[in-house]
Amino acid sequence: MDHPSAETQRTLYPYVTGSSVVALKYKDGILMAADTGGSYGSTLRYKSIERLKPIGKHSLLGASGEISDFQEILRYLDELILYDNMWDDGNSLGPKEVHNYLTRIMYNRRNKFNPLWNSLILGGVKNGQKYLGMVSMIGVNFEDNHVATGLGNHLARPILRDEWHENLTFEEGVQLLEKCMRVLLYRDRSAVNKIQISKITEEGATVFPPFSLKTYWEFSAFKNPTIGAEGSW
Length: 233
Fold this sequence. Notes:
Layout (H helix, E strand, L loop, with lengths): L15 E3 L2 E6 L2 E7 L2 E3 L2 E4 L5 E4 L3 E8 H21 L7 H17 L6 E9 L2 E7 L5 E3 L2 E3 L3 H4 L1 H7 L6 H18 L6 E8 L2 E4 L3 E2 L7 H4 L10
Antiparallel strand pairs: 1-4, 1-7, 2-3, 2-11, 3-12, 4-5, 6-7, 7-8, 8-9, 9-10, 12-13, 12-14
């Protein structure tokens, strides 16, 4: 009989999950934002989970979905970067290569019917070239000037389509991300008001400390959501 530790463990259902990640290209590089909440079902169980991580010299990763699967992905990437550094050939993996690697990982696990329950955003800058892409839990992937995961796909990207332009300054990019995260906070029950923003430029990645969004809850629709609704009394 095999030892219990030899048993295969699979994530059959996401337990502790993080909500949307939103990212965009700006004048000098990539900006990314996510909140710090971790939900156990519909209960906000953890309030200080950081889901934005620098990868190697040129890349920045953001993840929504199952937190333990995200930790497993980070272990894969640690091995990838270590193996790359061991060559010591003066080159290092850029964001495009890391994104391609993640698409293969996610699609491979999907084909084994043992998916990693995450949506990932990978951005970076190498040799002056900005790169931003996403990959879903089944390996669907694309590149764009701005991307989002989860409900951010439905609530944040319309804002980004209206207001994004390629010459955004750092301050303008942060304001735009804060606007997106505020809308998500109002509309996504899994979102919290403590968010984290990170940037990556040619000089490297910076993950800023979490901070609280300024919010306004006095809208009449918030106080009485049935006002003006179809079929309301």
